[in-house]
User: What shape does this take?
Amino acid sequence: MRVVPIPCLADNYAYLLVCPETKEAAIVDASEAGPVLRAVEEAEIDPRGRPHVTAILATHHHFDHVGGNEEVLRALGIARVYGSRHDEGRVPGQTERLEDGDAFTIGKLHVRAIAVPGHTLGALAYVVTSGGGEDPAVFTGDTLFLAGCGRLFEGDPPMMHRSLAKLAALEARTRVYCGHEYTESNLRFAAHVEPSNQAIAEARARAAEARKDGRSTVPGTLGTELATNPFLRASSAEIRATLGIASTAPDEEALGAIRKAKDTFRG
Ligand code: ZN
Ligand code: FE
Assistant: This one.
């Protein structure tokens, strides 16, 4: 599969997902129309062939993820707009109402929606596999960021903990494409709460290098997230010691405390 990150607004990512065999393509989170349509135009002159965009996949209803839907679907003649059943009426142009586990295809790519409530109640992640041994991809919206997670606008810590556990159970080599470029500031917090974690130091060096060259930090891999992301590491003794979380507290309670600390962290 081919995935093109499309920087939008201040720090959002939309993505162009292309099936290389059929050239059928989808936009994940049409944040704003201008950059998305430019990215599709650029892909059209790519020697690998002209993609045919047939669908928009919305991770959640927030405007910075669906604000470009109407213009993009009109400009490209898109007939299918996927979103959660819970987000009906809040995803412009929505035609498909997904439930946890619903699957569909983009060309020969297999896409499965998984319900990951917490940031919003209808939040979805899309897991994409192509067969043939290629690394899977997951589009996580504002649920899982590289080294972070979304704020709990509609859900609570136990809900987010269950959602992150679903993502953590994916294959370690899964490539993680998230909704925002927050990686460097997330890693500053990660290093603050778990200073002796060498994987975090290495991830910080890689992220700094990428941003210095004007590149994005996406995709990460789930394996790296498991090693660095404090929200997937709620059981870490060092994180708990830093934040004064009891060693006996359940992980979902620790996650709530980590989220609260991150909300007020200035580092
Ligand atoms: Zn959001
Ligand atoms: Fe967002």
The mean pLDDT is 97.
